[in-house]
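Question thread 4412

I'm putting together a teaching handout and wanted feedback from people who do this every day. The idea is simple: show students a protein as raw sequence, then show them the structure tokens that encode its fold, then repeat with a second protein so they can compare. Below is the first pair exactly as I plan to print it.
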Amino acid sequence: MKTIRRVMDAMKKKRNEDEGFSLIELIIVVAIIGILVAIAIPVFGNIQATARTNALKAAAGNAATAAAASFANGDTATEALAAAQTAADGDITVAWKTTPTTGDEVCVVATDPSANPTTEESGPGC
């Protein structure tokens, strides 16, 4: 009889210990998650802005390379600009800063309306 009573008391005690989290513990966890989110959102926004800027720089560099190669092949400035525009991605547009006459004067300005800054220059003539 005493053994059964001890087992029953042990089971009741164990049930009382395993009731779950208290309200204060849950509030602390929610507060910590809120702080982490408040820190992460601005960092994520900055990463996106940096990625857009780097994509625009890369597009300007690719366009300048394509334009200089086109000049090296003996193409005109209009044909070189068409080659540079083909090298650009998406909404990015490419234009001359000043119209070049040789490959050494190539300066391409890439523009992306969704990025900040919206323009980047690249080429040996910049």
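The second pair follows. I'd like the answer to focus on this one:
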Amino acid sequence: MKLHTVGALAALSLLAACASKAPETGNTSTGATTTAPSGPSITPGSQEDLVANVGDRVFYEFNSSSLTDAAQATLDKQVAFLQRYPNDKFQIAGNCDDRGTEEYNIALGNRRAHAAKEYLVAKGVSASRLTTISYGKDRPTALGDNEEAWAQNRNAISSVQ
């Protein structure tokens, strides 16, 4: 019987030692304590904020620079982001999959970046806050020679500058 009691107490001690608690900070003016946030924080208006809460890229169909409904929905969220953070600027990078010549893909990436920029401008974002660049097929986001990888690489990516 004593052995069971000792074993139970040892198990409780181990469980208590494993319990974690967020650090507390004292408020000297009121004597209250608050729990500090326990995860990494995202700076409002940052690239991390854009990626996590808005979406930093839009995707295109094969051999196209036309915006899909899904792309327009993402760009609408980017408009709201830019309105919320009027000091932010975007660089929009047009990208392609690895099919086609380098010259063709640079031109297509340029058209994709400009299509995203023109949409943002049409929705009220000042053109002076937006720059474009084309990487063609030089900066793939997904590796592979299949439709899944190619679809991920046909994009325009917005970066907070």
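Top answer:
Good format. For the second protein you could add a caption like this: The chain has one domain: 47-160. Strands lie at 24-26, 33-35, 57-59, 90-95, 130-136, 155-160.
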